[in-house]
Design brief:
By secondary structure, the chain is α+β, with helices and mostly antiparallel strands. The protein is 65% helix and 14% strand. It has a two-stranded antiparallel ribbon. Homodimer. Interacts with FtsZ.
């Protein structure tokens, strides 16, 4: 059953609809907000959409680094990959839904 979870990222309110545990979605939103705020310190005049893309690239880089440190015959943790895909989907849905 999908639930609507309200979150605040970079001062904007988002309603995120998802099947995941609401606390987990809130936690993801907090991670995204923290990373976006961290990036905005170095780029104070950057538009929020640009920051969102940079956040997504940072998380994608982290995932690829995890993958590359594993043995080439091993795949990335299905759990980590699933969480990353959920995060990207939530970002996309949040950006598209609120623009």
């Amino acid at each position: 059953m999908s639930e609507k979870i309200k979150s605040r990222i970079l001062g904007d309110d988002y309603t995120i609809v998802g099947d995941a545990d609401p606390d987990y979605i809130k936690q993801l939103a907090e991670v995204v907000d923290r990373k976006a705020r961290e990036l905005s310190l170095g780029m104070p005049s950057a538009p929020k959409l640009k920051l969102a893309v940079l956040v997504a690239l940072n998380f994608a880089d982290e995932l690829e680094q995890i993958r590359s440190t594993k043995n080439s015959s091993e795949a990335a943790s299905p759990d980590a990959e699933a969480k990353t895909k959920k995060l990207i989907t939530l970002l996309e849905e949040g950006l598209i839904g609120d623009l």
